[in-house]
Design goal:
By secondary structure, this protein is an alpha/beta fold. The chain contains twelve helices and 13 strands. A seven-stranded parallel β-sheet has the order 3-2-1-4-5-6-11, with helices on both faces. A two-stranded parallel sheet has the order 7-10. The protein is globular and about 55 Å long.
Amino acid sequence: MKVLVTGGTGFVGPHVVHAIRAQGHDVRALVRRPGSKAARTLESWGCELAEGSMTDADSLRRAVEGCDAVVHLVALLFGTPEEFRRVMEQGTRDLVAAAKEAGVERFVLMSANGAVEGRELTPYFAAKWDEEQAVAESGIPYVAFRPSFVFGPDGGQLPIQLRLTRFSPVTPLMSRRRFQPIWVDDVAAFFAAALTNEEATNRVFGLGGPDVVTWEELHAEIRRVLGKRRLTLRVPAGLLKASASIGQVLPPFHGARAAVEMLDFDDNVADPGPAIEVFGIRPIDLRSQIRRAVS
């Protein structure tokens, strides 16, 4: 099977590519800069590189030609509403159209916990919900995953929180909400398995680890693993939002307020039971995730 992977050079992407390659499938990776370090790493693993972007429909058609499946991971963390619409919503619809035209037989989508109808709190959630609809309406057999926070040693929130605990005498708590961290290699295993698991076809699965924690409980566990004693400080949501509103006037922080609103709006808790039952993959617990990140 030849699989086109978008977002293969991001945080989760290399782990997914590695898992797909480990199952013996060929990978073609959509990359904006073939000469980048991340792209060269994928190439060294035996991946074919296809230069292009989610805003170039012609490049998407070229990238998907000859592929049997698509794994779509591209997402923006920050940006203007127009950027979310252009890259995630329209880009996904262009990719789906190209995949259908090319006769792709499987489409596996990275959605997000919270991407449900009527809960379009931020451009990110709205875009993820739109992506799900585009894939479901395409007629291509699909699988979509909605993970809670993804933890790993080389990206996402966990390294940031580890650095805070190691080097700061006071640890700020960003939210009072609960979430359900899942290890990045467990997420990758679900994506790789979804390529051939017929029982999963045309279904949407929540993903999360076995532990549901608050940010305060996360830092307590980090302190136990690191053997550190630290004070914690709960930052009022209003102060976080105000700071984000000021910061988002700068291009790198566009959408920062929306990210804070997402963080504090509701619990980010999934039901991984159906995914575990269908795929037979049991995610590791939070303490194991932290230990792997610091090893």
